[in-house]
Design goal:
Number of strands: 17
Shape: globular
CATH class of the largest domain: Alpha Beta
Helix content: 40-55%
Largest sheet: 9 strands, mixed
Structural class: alpha/beta
Distance between the termini: 76 Å
CATH superfamily of the largest domain: Urocanase superfamily
């Protein structure tokens, strides 16, 4: 049976043979046993409803074994036999190119070269899932193959509820992930309801099909590291030979070494999972692998003495590195952490003093002891960082919930007021005021042809558009434009592509719309050979309400509200998005953030032109308006500039209050 026929059949008509897990890929850690006997039976009943009754006797036993062994039912038997990767859009069986584009993106998210735990359908972040099980994948792909331009597929936390009549103007797919009743968003609620098969953690771009491999974060990380060095170095200094120490080489964190090389420093990135470190090395995202702390110390000293630009992956625990570097008096200019601490008890953070294998066994068999170990390690981790910062290291939280979980563990990370953290979030110090408030965020596109020639042409188009914009841009955003022009000019030589032929670029509303219009024209006139798929990370201006990351530089008391993200996904849906998504959870954890995303297919039509003008404008300016209302001066500037340029935009501006009116009150 060929590829198209396999897609169209959905759940197979005959029970396929049982499949074993592959030893060639990384696997999700076994989850803790949290269900009662009755709840386990309910989980089996929930899983069996995808299949005909005459299969239930065989599958009930098999799914029970999976649940008991792994803590989840993944349905390994139903993994497709074809290779999982993004194909050219023409390879997919579909009634509409929009549906085929979504199929392409789903397969890219599950490509073993891209996904962190591909057989568990987890793309990145330890728990960021595209689907809960393989039956959901099969059904979703079948529905997409049948969909017309007047139907919408509704996805409930990975489960394809079905095709509903809609209209050409409606999104083709609407995705929700983890949308729990608020009082049921604690960590154990995720463990329980995910094990039952009724909800999932979509992370940010995993469950919305917009992940493009570690390139998706490398640009933002490069901007962050470059500007962090600008904060700590003198005007005549450069980052060569200066150390950036961090941790994590899994999904999104795998971008850090590449970003450090682009910024021009020494990057030392610790990773406890040897497979993850070796994968990034094989992909060219890190220069050298080191598994001995003595060798790491020696190599670091050599790199410093020679003012090298190099990335070193240490296969081991970052706590050991922080402590040893202090003893060796190795000065660290920048420090951060990008382990998945939004998922602290199920593989997101591995404690110092325990091996990778010991930790995986403990989190499954003795989760209370594992939690104790993690919190002990966090206290030790924070203390080592504190020792370095007293000597001048600039440490910033990378929005992975490191400071949040460290504070919950009792680590010394709180400011004197006992409310704020002693170290800033990178959004508070860098990306918020420099990028998000001006509307700059992670705009991305995928060439659906799968051709490198098309990607090169899009790079050239984006470069040309940004150069034109920069000529008349105000001084406030000249640095942002210059950084992005340099980025796109060097994108191909930096070998950023893993999986689909994709690119990311930080751009504001003007830049996104003009680049997208130029793409659409290039498709119409045949310069580009196939549609372009637009999207963004949820880590952006408007898409995410996250008080410890994306909206951490909102100071009017509203950072714990989620109105912006909800309005974003609703507003995008009726302004022309091809698909939209809204999630509970993301980079900082279940119950800690609400984030929304979109995808948009450009096919060279006037209809696509109309939609992109309308939707991309709102997708950015919704967030700028919220940030302006919070009295962020950069956002107030950006919003006023947009209202001067767009006469149909009229937004409430804040009236600023002088301190003299407040100082004697209360």
């Amino acid at each position: 049976m060929d590829f198209k026929a396999q897609i169209q059949i959905g759940i197979p008509t005959e029970l396929p043979p049982k499949k074993e897990r592959s030893s060639a890929v990384s696997h999700a850690p076994n989850r803790k046993q949290i269900l009662s006997r009755e709840e386990k039976q309910l989980a089996i009943r929930n899983a069996l409803r995808y299949f005909p009754a005459d299969w239930h006797a065989v599958l009930a036993t098999e799914f029970a074994e999976e649940l008991q062994t792994y803590g989840r039912i993944y349905m390994y038997r139903f993994q497709p036999t074809y290779d999982m990767h993004a194909r050219a859009i023409s390879a997919y069986p579909a009634q509409t190119s929009h549906a085929a584009a979504i199929m392409l993106m789903i397969q890219n998210n599950l490509d073993p070269a891209v996904a962190q735990h591909p057989q568990e359908l987890i793309t990145y972040g330890g728990i960021g899932a595209v689907f809960q099980n393989w039956a959901q994948y099969l059904l979703t792909m079948q529905y997409l193959s049948e969909m017309t331009n007047e139907q919408t597929l509704h996805i409930y936390s990975g489960h394809p509820m079905g095709l509903f009549p809609s209209s050409k103007e409606a999104p083709r797919v609407v995705v929700t992930n983890g949308m729990m009743i608020p009082n049921y968003s604690k960590q154990d609620d995720w463990e329980k309801y995910n094990a039952l098969g009724v909800t999932q953690y979509g992370q940010m771009t995993a469950g919305s099909y917009m992940y493009i491999g570690p390139q998706g974060i490398v640009h933002g990380t490069a901007i962050t590291v470059m500007n962090a060095f600008r904060k700590v170095l003198k005007a005549d200094e450069n980052p060569n030979g200066k150390i950036f120490l961090t941790a994590g080489l899994g999904g999104m964190s795998g971008a850090q070494p590449k970003a450090g090389n682009i910024a021009g420093c020494i990057t030392i990135c610790a990773e406890v999972n040897p497979l993850a470190a070796k994968k990034r090395h094989e992909q060219g995202w890190v220069d050298e692998l080191i598994d001995d702390l003595d060798i790491l110390v020696s190599r670091t000293k050599e790199a410093k003495s020679k003012n090298e630009v190099v990335s070193l992956a240490f296969i081991g625990n970052v706590v050991d590195v922080w402590e040893r570097f202090f003893k060796e008096a190795i000065f660290i200019h920048l420090g951060s952490d990008q382990t998945s601490l939004h998922n602290p008890w199920a593989g997101g953070y591995y404690p110092a003093g325990s091996t990778f294998e010991e930790s995986n066994k403990m989190m499954n068999q003795n989760p209370d002891a594992f939690k104790t170990k993690v919190q002990e390690s966090l206290r030790r981790h924070a203390e080592a960082i504190n020792q370095h910062t007293k000597k001048g290291t600039y440490f910033f939280d990378y929005g992975n919930a490191f400071l949040l979980e460290a504070s919950r563990a009792g680590a010394d990370v709180m400011a004197e007021n006992k409310i704020d953290f002693k170290y800033p979030s990178y959004v508070q110090d860098i990306l918020g005021p420099m990028c998000f408030d001006y509307g700059f965020g992670p705009f991305r596109w995928v060439c659906s042809s799968g051709k490198i020639e098309d990607l090169r042409k899009t790079d050239a188009i984006a470069f040309r558009v940004l150069e034109e914009i920069k000529k008349d841009a105000p001084s406030e955003i000249q640095q942002q434009l210059s950084d992005n022009i340099k980025w796109i000019a060097e994108a191909e030589q930096n070998k950023l592509v893993v999986g689909s032929k994709a690119r990311i670029l930080y751009a504001d509303a003007e830049g996104r719309a003009k680049i997208a219009l130029a793409f659409n024209e290039a498709i119409e006139n045949g310069e580009l050979s196939a549609p372009i798929i637009l999207g963004r990370d949820h880590h952006d201006v408007s898409g995410t309400d996250s008080p410890y990351r994306e909206t951490s530089n909102i100071y009017d008391g509203s950072k714990f509200t989620a109105d912006m993200a909800i309005h974003n996904v609703i507003g995008d849906s009726f302004r022309g998005a091809t698909w939209v998504s809204i999630h509970n959870g993301g980079g900082v954890g279940w119950g800690e953030v609400t984030n929304g995303g979109f995808g948009m297919v450009l096919d060279g039509s006037k209809d696509a032109e109309r939609k992109l003008r309308n939707m991309l404008f709102y997708d950015v300016n919704n967030g700028i308006a919220r940030r302006s209302w919070a009295r962020n001066k950069e956002a107030m500037f950006a919003l006023q500039r947009e209202m001067d340029r767009t006469k149909t935009l009229k937004v409430t501006m804040p009236s600023l209050v002088e301190e003299k009116h407040l100082k004697d009150l209360f």
